[in-house]
Amino acid sequence: MLDARLSGHDTFLTGTLLLEGQEVQVRILTFDDVTVLDPASPLELPPAGAVWSGVLRLPHGWRPPEIPVDLAKAAAEAGIDPGRWNAANARHLLTYLSEAREGPVRTQRIQVIITALRAEP
User: Fold this and answer.
1) How far is CA 59 from CA 9, 66, 100, 105, in A?
2) What is the per-residue burial (b if ≥16 Cβ within 10 Å, else e) of 34-50?
3) How do residues 82-116 score in pLDDT, each as one tens digit?
4) What is the distance between the alpha carbons of residues 8 and 5, in angstroms, rounded to a whole number?
5) Orientation angle between helical segments 104-119 and 87-98, nearest 10 degrees
6) Rg (alpha carbons) of the chain, rounded to whole number
């Protein structure tokens, strides 16, 4: 857990943590009031409660997310333009949708996304 929440950065992205000569790929999880780094590989960390420092390298220049065909179709039918979505929100919505492969859960998630986007000002 970082000592301060990352602000201005998207969550659910990956970065590189430079820690005592090691380079570790981490998943960056930013919640309401805390940011957590989840190592992609086993890492021997200092004991719980210990204070340590490292350098977190954040990627830049992300490409626009690809909208799946089923979501694009539902958005078009609802008169919603995916090109106007905020990039951070789009990644969040697409991550939420990608966790459901096919079937009723995916269909329900698309409905939730469309309902939420209709409610935006």
Assistant:
1) 10, 18, 26, 32
2) ebebeeeeeeeeeeeee
3) 878 877 788 888 889 988 888 999 999 999 999 98
4) 10
5) 160
6) 18
